[in-house]
Structures are given as structure tokens and as C-alpha cells.
């Protein structure tokens, strides 16, 4: 049986205020084309269909179109809710949609009831959907001994294994789950799911099944041959700039063996992270390849340059992020306590020292010193006037 594993669509999400709806629509076109081109038998979507619990209408319409196209393709789809989704909203009309071959699994009570996919003559494949399990909300329902991600997932997998034990010998099994599994590499894009200081669970929790289709982490990665993250189809933060966005094409052999192939997703615009002094970045010919990319720039100039964003966008018109990290030289003076550095210094000297500090060692010029001096003189004059008024 051939499975297409994807997750973390985050429909409705933007990238630094740039709408990604067109890019998400292009991905869904690619998904449907892949289903046809590679003779896919079933599609697995491991959570975070939407980016938030109440998604914008355009995202809902995009999702609705995708469901219709998958149903028309006659290829079963199994989909779970993630930590960004509202499980109850996503699961509305799930039983009705089941009839079209789109199986939404959003209710923890249904964890032990699989979607059975026929694969003659090799028997059925049992697909279990484990929606995102918020420990505090599902612990009692699942009979977990304590609150925590590992405990509730272990309890959920106990239900899966108990049901699987009732199936005919040789029944192959697949689990969809939305979780942070130990060994996975996170990015800045995932919402924190830490409970009790622990966010991750060991991969061993999923022992006993043939394939585990994971969602939550945005980088595609294989924790084992049988436990994989598909990652998100699009980048949602600059921390993902090195990611190769893809889906997993999984062939599940009659004996439960797994082979996997990565299917690349369309890239709306590449990402680049640039670092250095402004003049160097504007002049470096090696950066020509990034001129059409979405760019995040970290400027290291000791003194903040004038109009940096305007100058950057003339060369890199899709610059979306600008960070300042001035180069600093460590001196013994920097190690002294703040109180010691203030001792015996005038207000003017303290202000000039502050300017020197925030600029990484470059002090104020004559014009700036005069401006500081004038500001202090104005403050002192205002205080003197107030004191005279109080004295009356």
C-alpha cells in the first residue's frame, strides 16, 4: 500500500505579514497531482490543518476545496487535529464526511477505532488517528496514570495495541500522531506544548505498529525508518530557511516493511538569512542569488546606519526582517559593575557612555555631544523653574 504523509498545513498563516494563501493553494494542487501521478492509495494528514482555532474564511474555503478534490480522486484521506486546530470545529460533520472517504479523527474517544483500508490480496491496513492530546484535558478520559505528554500518549497507544490484537494476524498498522518526539529537531515556528517542564516523548511509545506519521515539527525528518515527521509544506519562519520542504511517499509492504521517498513541495520564494555590515551586504556580489528571496538581515555595524531598510530593499526588495546586533569589543571596563562605572561621573558623561555602549564602542560625535548637553541644560532649567514655583 502506498501512503502519502503530510502535515502542518497551517492554512491561513502568513509569513511576516505576507499572505501565503496562494502558496498554500499551490501546495494543495501539488498534493492532488502527487496522488494521481504516484498512484497513492491513501493520504495521511498529521495535524495542524489550520493555523488557529478560528481560521479566516479564505482558509476554510481552501480546506473545503481540498477535501472535495481528494474525495473526487477516490483516494481515502485520514486526518487528525493538531495543537493549532480546534478539534471540535475541525471535527464538525466528521461522520458525514466519512462517507466520502475523508476520515477526520479529532475525538480522543475514537483512538482505538481505526480506519480500515482494504489492500487485496494482502489484507487490511488499520490506520489509527491520535489527535493532539492536551494532557490536562484527556488524562482521565484515557486513564493515564499522571498528567504529561508521555503518559497520555502511552495510554492512547495502549488502546491502539489492544484493538490491533483483535485484528486478523498480519494486519498492518499505521498511527497518525501530533507530538514532539524525542530526537526531533524543532524550529521557531512550532507553538510550545511543554507540560510540567517536559515537551517531548520517546519514540518507543509507538512500538508495535508498522508506521508512525508524525506532525508538529516543521522539518521533515526520520527518527527511525518507521517513525517520521513530514514537516510543513511551506516555511513559516526564517528558522526554516535550510529546510527542504517535502512529503513522505511511504510504501508499506505486505510484511509490514517500510520504504520511503521524499516528494518535494513547490517553493513560493526561497529564504535567506544575511549577516554583516550594511555596506558589505550591499556590495557583495556573492549575495546576488538572494536578491529574489525573502530575506532576514542582521546588521553588525557598530553604529546604526541611516535608513537601513530603505537601502537594503533597493538590492533585496523582499527584505522582511531587520535585526541589529552591533559588533562589540570586550574590554576590562565592560566587566566592571554598573555602579562602579557611574561613580564620580557627570550626567553628560553617563549619557555619552551609554551611547558608546549601545553602539558597540563608537561614542557620540561633536554634534551629538552638543545635543546631549542641550537636553541636560533644558532639563536643569525646567527643574529650576519648578523649584521656584514650589518655593512661592
UniProtKB/TrEMBL annotation:
Residues 268-357 form the Nuclease SbcCD subunit D C-terminal domain. It holds the Pfam family SbcD_C. InterPro entries: Calcineurin-like_PHP, DNA_Repair-Maintenance_Comp, Metallo-depent_PP-like, Mre11_N, SbcD, SbcD_C. Gene3D superfamilies: 3.60.21.10. GO terms for molecular function: 3'-5' exonuclease activity; endonuclease activity. Residues 1-218 form the Calcineurin-like phosphoesterase domain. GO terms for biological process: DNA recombination; DNA replication. Keywords: DNA recombination, DNA replication, Endonuclease, Exonuclease, Hydrolase, Nuclease. Heterodimer of SbcC and SbcD. Belongs to the SbcD family. PANTHER family: COMPONENT OF ATP-DEPENDENT DSDNA EXONUCLEASE, NUCLEASE SBCCD SUBUNIT D. SbcCD cleaves DNA hairpin structures. These structures can inhibit DNA replication and are intermediates in certain DNA recombination reactions. The complex acts as a 3'->5' double strand exonuclease that can open hairpins. It also has a 5' single-strand endonuclease activity. This is Nuclease SbcCD subunit D. It comes from Streptomyces thermolilacinus SPC6.
Amino acid at each position: 500500500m502506498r501512503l502519502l504523509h503530510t502535515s502542518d498545513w497551517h492554512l491561513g498563516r502568513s509569513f511576516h505579514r505576507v499572505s501565503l494563501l496562494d502558496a498554500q493553494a499551490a501546495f494543495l494542487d501539488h498534493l492532488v497531482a502527487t496522488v494521481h501521478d504516484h498512484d497513492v492509495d491513501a493520504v495521511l494528514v498529521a495535524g495542524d490543518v489550520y493555523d488557529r482555532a478560528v481560521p479566516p474564511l479564505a482558509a476554510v474555503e481552501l480546506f473545503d476545496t481540498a477535501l472535495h478534490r481528494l474525495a473526487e480522486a477516490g483516494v481515502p484521506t485520514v486526518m487528525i487535529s493538531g495543537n493549532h486546530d480546534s478539534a471540535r470545529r475541525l471535527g464538525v460533520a466528521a461522520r458525514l464526511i466519512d462517507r466520502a472517504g475523508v476520515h477526520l479523527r479529532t475525538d480522543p474517544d475514537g483512538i482505538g477505532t481505526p480506519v480500515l483500508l482494504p489492500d487485496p490480496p494482502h489484507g487490511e491496513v488499520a490506520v489509527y488517528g491520535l489527535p493532539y492530546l492536551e494532557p490536562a484535558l484527556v488524562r482521565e478520559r484515557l486513564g493515564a496514570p499522571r498528567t504529561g505528554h508521555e503518559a497520555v500518549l502511552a495510554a492512547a497507544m495502549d488502546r491502539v495495541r489492544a484493538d490491533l490484537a483483535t485484528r486478523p494476524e498480519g494486519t498492518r498498522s499505521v498511527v497518525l500522531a501530533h507530538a514532539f518526539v524525542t530526537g526531533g529537531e524543532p524550529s521557531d515556528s512550532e507553538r510550545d506544548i511543554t507540560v510540567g517542564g517536559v515537551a517531548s516523548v520517546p519514540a518507543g511509545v509507538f512500538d508495535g505498529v508498522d508506521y508512525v506519521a508524525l506532525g508538529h515539527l516543521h522539518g521533515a525528518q526520520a527518527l527511525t525508518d518507521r517513525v517520521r515527521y513530514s514537516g510543513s509544506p511551506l516555511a513559516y519562519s526564517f528558522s526554516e530557511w535550510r529546510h527542504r520542504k517535502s512529503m513522505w511517499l511511504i510504501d508499506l509492504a505486505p510484511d509490514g516493511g517500510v520504504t520511503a521517498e521524499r516528494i518535494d513541495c513547490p517553493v513560493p520564494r526561497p529564504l535567506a538569512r544575511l549577516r554583516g555590515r550594511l555596506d558589505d551586504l550591499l556590495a557583495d556580489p556573492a549575495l546576488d542569488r538572494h536578491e529574489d528571496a525573502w530575506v532576514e538581515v542582521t546588521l553588525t555595524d557598530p553604529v546604526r546606519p541611516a535608513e537601513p531598510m530603505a537601502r537594503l530593499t533597493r538590492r533585496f526588495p523582499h527584505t522582511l526582517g531587520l535585526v541589529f546586533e552591533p559588533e562589540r569589543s570586550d574590554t576590562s571596563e565592560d566587566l566592571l559593575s554598573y555602579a562602579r562605572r557611574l561613580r564620580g561621573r557627570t550626567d553628560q558623561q553617563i549619557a555619552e557612555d551609554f551611547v558608546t555602549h549601545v553602539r558597540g564602542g563608537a561614542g557620540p560625535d561633536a554634534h551629538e555631544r552638543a545635543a546631549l548637553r542641550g537636553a541636560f541644560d533644558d532639563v536643569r532649567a525646567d527643574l529650576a523653574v519648578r523649584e521656584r514655583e514650589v518655593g512661592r
